[in-house]
Amino acid sequence: MNFKKENMTLAQKDKKHIIHPWSDLGSDAESMVIESGKGIHVFDDAGNQYIDSISGMWCVNLGYGNREMANAIADQCVQLAYYTPFGAMTSPPSVKLADKLSRLTPGDLNCFQFTNSGSTAVESAIRFAHYYFNCLGKPEKKHIIYRENAYHGSTYLSASLNGKKCDRSYFNYITDMVHSIPDPNPFKRPAGMSVEEFCDLRVSELEQKILQLGPENAACFIAEPVMGSGGVIVPPPGYHKKTLEICRKYDVLYISDEVVTAFGRLGHYFASENVFDIVPDIITVAKGISSGYQPLGAAIISEKLVNRISGPSASENSYYTNGFTYSGHPVTCAAALKYLEIMEREKINEHVREVGDYFMERLETLRELSIVGDVRGIRLMACVECVVSDNEEENIAVAQRVDEFCQENGLIVRPYENLCILSPPLIIEKEGVDQIVNILRQSIIATTNERKKENQ
Fold first, then answer.
1. pLDDT surpasses 60 at 1
2. pLDDT score at 4
3. Domain 32-65+347-455 has CATH 3.90.1150.10
């Protein structure tokens, strides 16, 4: 027996054996071991308590330790843990979930390809777009337009649609059929330009890109309603509606990536129609669909599109060879059904609309602090941008200090460049909001004071 290995701490074993997503392989730092959670709090293996203001990864909407969720998962494991979804096979939870969701989705988005994650949902959406145009005899329509600072996943194709610089490393990416346009961040608009003019500029850049590619070659445009990990970028009013009109004009499919925004984060089941007044061709979801209690995603596709290439309209030998072993997994679908039941019964959307507006009001008070450049977001999806100079690296270093002070004071925020990103569980009350904002304020002040001492 290797006694030395057995005596290693969990953090040391983790460092030795696990390759983490988005981890610095050159770092010697050990991971924080999160051992348990209850409500909006998580606890590390040393017993320290933290407010989880990022919901794990935008997803633990009901908070931690929900017994109803756990029991629904356990009961389904006993009833039917798994059966193949391939071909003409199904299970009751997946059918019930699709039926339930079809009553919540906008427009005629009633057809579901269940996946394992947001990445595979996006991958499936893009593959459907290609399959769709191939079936219609338009194989040249394969080019995809995405936006700078976007995040759409980490499978080969979805990762190629990420517009964040830090997401591009030593991996390979598809380059021949993906094309970026600038993001619609009003905070970064040119000096002297109104928000309305900025919106029109960004919309025109989409049209210009389609015309540059040739409408006969452009397949789809993919956009997060609110750009999540790229900086919680809320577009100017009317942006999504105008970009959808451009896509309709040139027969380009509009994919709304709601992996983060769906299922309550903005106070609605879906943000596309209820918040931004659009009915896209495809919506991708994951994360909150099961409150993070089980891995589940979906590409939700317009019935009109599906009808054009199925049934009597199907092409010869039109096998849809896309899917996964765990597509429509009965246990994950049972978790999603239970989450939707709890959402409806506990009026989670209504709660988010109330407490989320309060959250943004409280965050706005941080603008008075000297290193806060911008505060933005919608309801329980927000960020604070730190700006101390025109030097990007200096701004990033300042934000990292703020994040460190937050963690020392019992608050976990999500750091990205010079941003402090926040997305607490949807069950948070106003008291929890006050705690988050107070700790964040204290941490920003502590960072400011530390910088003053260093510059004396």
1. no
2. 53
3. yes
